[in-house]
Amino acid sequence: RSMSDNELLRNPSPPPLTDEEKAKLKADYIGESLFSKKWVLNVIFKLFSLKEEEIYDTQLKLKQNFLESNSEQRLCNESNNDNLKELLGTFEDEICELWDISANSDVSTFLYENDSQAILMYVLDKTQSPRLLEICFGILGNMACVEKVALGMISDETFCDTLLEYLSLTDSLSLVELTRLLCVLMSHEVCLEKLIKSFETSSLEPHPVDQLVRILQNSLNVNIVMNIVEILDLIFDNSDKLMELHCKEILNCLLDVYYILNENSMQEPISNLLHILQSFTTTVSCVCELLKHDSLVVFLCSIFAHLLSGNNPRVKDQCLQSFYSVLSCLLSGNAKAVLSTINENYNLLVFLIDILNEKLTEYDTNEEAELNHIYLMVYLEPFHDIFYNLTICEEHFGNLFQVLKDKKILINNIIDLCTVIGMHSEDFAHFSENLATFNENLNL
């Protein structure tokens, strides 16, 4: 047949690759990926060289552009803006592509094996570009996702201490990636221990935890707030020393932090926030601070109760133990003030009654329930303490009494269930007797 015009104009197909050419291509692949070793090393070398003409756009004045177009995205330190630099567009594209592919575990391992950690830390120290700071922290964060790489990274004695120095930065996008890097490192147990030690032994002024609190108090960036809440939760869960030193500052900014997270429907960090409060119940000095802020904390508990009443069972299960620990601590320390606040936020009592009935019913009807007597006591104690204190307080808490009257049937069911469980537990027998007596004395 005759060839068509299109066929006559079409370029011929390239010849198939030889075995030798295929072997060369495969040798350039990073691990099982299709990313090129040569390309990655070229970008890393360009980064390390820090040649002005290859990296920075010397034709643009970053200061004006930075302040005008990113005023809502970045926290700017006016005294440091004169020397800020903009990245060259072509280089920014390359380094951002490297950032993207560093999420691949093979690429992360390859980067670490080729001294990229040292190069990135060198660039962080030398660059005057906020964008390059952000990208370098981002690449390090991706590398740290691979546990063996993270362990190698913290084997550098200066690495953790140097990261803490960068908490003095004021650029919000860089702080997003820096705090993410710290979160990723702290997700590995060995790295967590090393970072906690660095926090505890730091001689920096202000102290790194103070820097975290400062950022928390001044940032509206939800990603920064979310990361810092997670970091502080891990710090306080592993260091009583740091917790006692910084408990007061955290309590002072707690409500603002909650509102930022709640406005963005961030339930996971709210769980971390509640766990921080639970950690505060484990030392005497922190309990004293909690009691100074009892109205605030009970108000937060009432908000948490609303959240826990939602349809997210995973978050609910994570939060309940923290929630009850905090409330029990407050009731044991300053019951009258706590009752006064609960009276203003009476839905908290509704929540306590509903949850207690739910847990007791679950235990009573399911022989294989994971709940045991000790676990049930966590839910019973705050309710018992509220009942007891209502019988001895001279003040009249009208809203609380109305809730108890409205929930009378449920309360009687709770007392009956406690009596049944009390047949197998002296503690429950004692509580059921007390509840029955309180119920009678309150004349509900």
From TrEMBL:
One GO CC term on file? nucleus
Query: What gene is this protein a product of?
Result: SAAL1
In which organism is this protein found?
A: Hydra vulgaris
What family does this chain come from, according to its entry?
A: Belongs to the SAAL1 family.
Q: Where in the cell is it found?
A: Nucleus
Q: Is Nucleus among the key words of this record?
A: yes
Nucleus found in the keyword field:
yes
Question: SUPFAM superfamilies from the entry?
Answer: ARM repeat
Against InterPro entries, the record matches this protein to: ARM-like (IPR011989), ARM-type_fold (IPR016024), Synovial_Prolif_Regulator (IPR052464)
Question: What is this protein's name?
Answer: Protein SAAL1
| Location of the region described as Disordered in the Swiss-Prot/TrEMBL record | 1-21
Keyword list, A-Z: Nucleus
